[in-house]
Amino acid sequence: MRRITVLMALPFAPVFALGNDGKNEPVPETVSFTKDVRPILNQHCQGCHQPAKAQGAYVLTDYGSLLKPGETGKTPVVPGKPADSYLIEEIRVRDGQHEMPKNRDALTTRQFAVIEKWIKQGAKDDTPAAAKTLAISQDKPPVYSAPPVVTSLAFDPAGKRLAVSGYHEILLFTADGASLQTRLVGLSERIQSLAFSPDGSRLAAVGGSPGRFGEVQIWDVAKSKLIVSAPVTADTLYGVSWAPDGSMVAFGCADNTVRGIDPATGKQTLQMGTHADWILGTTFSRDGRYLASVSRDMTVKLTEVATQRFIDNVTSITPGALKGGLMAVAVRPKTARWFQKVPEDTKGLPPKIYDELLVAGADGIPRLYKMHRETKRVIGDDANRIKEYAAMPGRTSAVAFDAAGQRFAAVSSLDGKGEVFVYDVSKDKVATCKDVSGPAYTTVWQPDGKVLVSAGFDGVVWRHDPVTGKLLSTFKAMPTTKVAAK
Ligand code: HEC
To answer: pLDDT at residue 15 above 80?
Structure first.
């Protein structure tokens, strides 16, 4: 009897996975702002109506603001009276037309009904107290009592600015960390991954608030202005990367998809769904034709960007051949070889350029792979693998090549301790960075290759000499009193 129950329950699982957007679910008897209305606003509205980007001078990221009129002066929500509420006017579909979400698909009939019923039932606020205190904006920046866990670092291509992930914000420091120049405060509680555009004019950040929403932020660096806040899925996003021509920003999702957006508009332009677990890292081929992604499912997969098609597994797909989930991937910036030997089965396609990928994860072993296979796949092979390097203690969550592509750095964490290693691509490990004060999660080279910058759990940013491993200086990833908090 028990067994039958389990089997019968399985086919229904996807229905629950649809959550509040499930078209077939009835509108709840009593509509909750937090459980029913908030997720709709997070997914379809807050990208354009948040403190850092208030279109129509209207903010709906917290209950208080949602009730305040925008530039029209019309009352958006009149408790008990949906017909008098301007917000309802804006989202209503009439003759196939709707105002909000602007230039996007209209809300579904069910989503509309949920919001309408909530207003009818008195538009009550049931926001948990913990979420209320999170009303953070550029004018009310986060206050730190200790440095945050640092999950990502990025240098602009000129080597002038160092971006550090903070709590609810990105901190832009001078290259040496001596002074904090700008605080880019956004919606996402956690910033998981940062990357400057190839020309350095824009900064992409992905993250979110766990279990509530995922977000891609695109900032204009010179103006410190948020250009795009794109809501994607209901969970945190990972592993951001730019197409070499700046036309796409790709990232990984906890719904096992790899996605890409147009960084100018926030519109989704790529989605690939053959991974079986979260995707934690992405990188484009040097010509931008392919996107490589690494996942907790232990595989590296290739997507053809133009067609959004899954092309190949870079790694072995034989069960048991790979050990542990993958967390980091980087494309080698320079290689001696240029063109790819085309295997028989891809005859007729234009020649590919030759690329190498560095991959690492839970087993702590950095591995170098050819991006494209040159021989036909044989069961059990790992034919694309070029080299395996000395293992790090614990899990390796980030790898980074230097600009010349001859050295790379990798960071790891185990039992409350961290390591930062430097490797020579054609040899093996060449340096151990000293005085790393905690688990290390992220690393980046100063573009001139003279300094390696890393950070992690304790929020201390370490600047090392990559040749000797000597610790040059440190700074804390948080605002000091010198920065005026408006
Ligand atoms: C792509 C950006 C975008 C999205 C997404 C979006 N809006 Fe707007 N919204 C705007 C802009 C721009 C305006 C200013 C008026 C205009 O240009 O139509 C506006 C104006 C409004 C106003 C009027 C404010 C006032 O009093 O002047 C309301 C209410 C509103 N939006 C609600 C919503 C809701 C609810 C959603 C989600 C269902 C949503 N918007 C999604 C861009 C957006």
So the answer is: no
